Amino acid sequence: MDELLYELRDGVAYLTFNRPQARNALTFAMYDRLAEICEQANKDRSIRALLLTGAGDKAFAAGTDISQFRAFDKEQDALDYEARIDRVLGALERCRVPTIAAINGACTGGGAGIAACCDLRIGTRSLRYGFPVAKTLGNCLSMNNYARLAALLGPARVKDIIFRARLIEAEEALAIGLVGELVEDGAALARRAEELVREVANLAPLTLQATKEAIYRLRPKPQEGSDLVLMCYMSADFREGMEAFLNKRKPVWKGR
User: Fold this and answer.
1) Strand ranges for the chain from DSSP E
2) Which 8-state DSSP code applies to residue 7?
3) Which DSSP letter does residue 241 get?
4) Nearest CA-CA partner of 193 in 109, 91, 126, 124
5) Cβ atoms of residues 118 and 101 within 8 Å
6) What does the domain layout of the chain look like in residue ranges?
7) What is the pLDDT of residue 103?
8) What is the pLDDT of residue 163?
9) Quick count: other Cβ atoms within 10 Å of Cβ 163?
10) How many CB atoms lie within 10 A of CB 125?
């Protein structure tokens, strides 16, 4: 079974994270394929918009598949992982065409990072959005991810959701502008997402491209953050968080 489905139909590219049995947790191959699709959209002028969804009714995407972290045993592994995520999310963020995330259920970790890079977001009332890493792995985000989130939600709210490892629910997401609208369920989401992506795809593409690029240029550029990545990913706490998560137990944090 393909883990990431892709279809181009009448000028709209449809991308579906397709691991419903794992709440659409993202493998490295799925991340890389997402970047390839964005690069294709940059070259193919017939593509006018990109719609991202998750298969099933449980999740848009519930972060990176944590089992992949077991292979991390040196500093370069952590740096390479965050560099890969930054490259992929940067490709999505800088994609020439408008991007829309249709969110049903959990949208956490890497999935939340992907949604944050999209231009428009809509969701169902089962939406749950956040980065509960302080409860799960004890890792951190890259500086670029923190910058994206701060631009989208504001620094105070980013601290609130990460310090408390809490998930933003649907009504709050609508109130703070994280999503532009809510619908009742997955079927309604599919219908509304199709309407919205077609509406956007039929507008002047250069106007939308220029606006997207202008907003990107307004965002302050983050400082270097490799020391923060290594502090977290090379810690005993990270190894403990990963093993606790995979063995379905509560982690014991030591702060080292």
Assistant:
1) 4-9, 12-17, 49-54, 59-62, 99-103, 106-108, 120-124, 128-130, 168-169, 181-183
2) E
3) H
4) 124
5) yes
6) 4-201
7) 98
8) 98
9) 9
10) 16
Q: Which amino acid is at 22?
A: A
Cβ(222)–Cβ(86) below 8 Å: no
Closest C-alpha to 97, from 135, 58, 45, 54: 45
For the chain (256 residues), the mean pLDDT of every run of 10, in chain order, is 94 98 95 97 97 97 87 87 93 98 97 98 98 95 95 97 98 98 98 98 98 95 94 94 92 96
Q: Each residue of 132-147: b (16+ CB within 10 Å) or e?
A: bbbbbbbbbbbbbbbb
Q: Packing angle between helix 110-117 and helix 143-153, nearest 10 degrees? A: 60
Please name which of 62, 50, 57, 72 lies closest in space to residue 23, comparing C-alpha atoms: 62
For the question of whether the overall pTM of this predicted structure is more than 0.90, the answer is yes
Helix H or strand E encompassing 229: helix 226-233
Contacts of 82 (CB under 8 A, 6+ apart): 142, 229
Structure tokens at 236: 């005993």
Give CA–CA dist 1/18, Å, rounded.
Answer: 8
Distance separating alpha carbons of residues 70 and 51, to the nearest angstrom:
32
Q: Select 4-201's CATH number: 3.90.226.10, 3.90.1200.10, 3.40.50.720, 3.40.50.300.
A: 3.90.226.10
Short-list 49, 39, 52, CA closest to 5: 52
Are the CB atoms for 16 and 55 separated by under 8 Å?
yes
Tokens of 7: 């279809």
DSSP class of 249: S
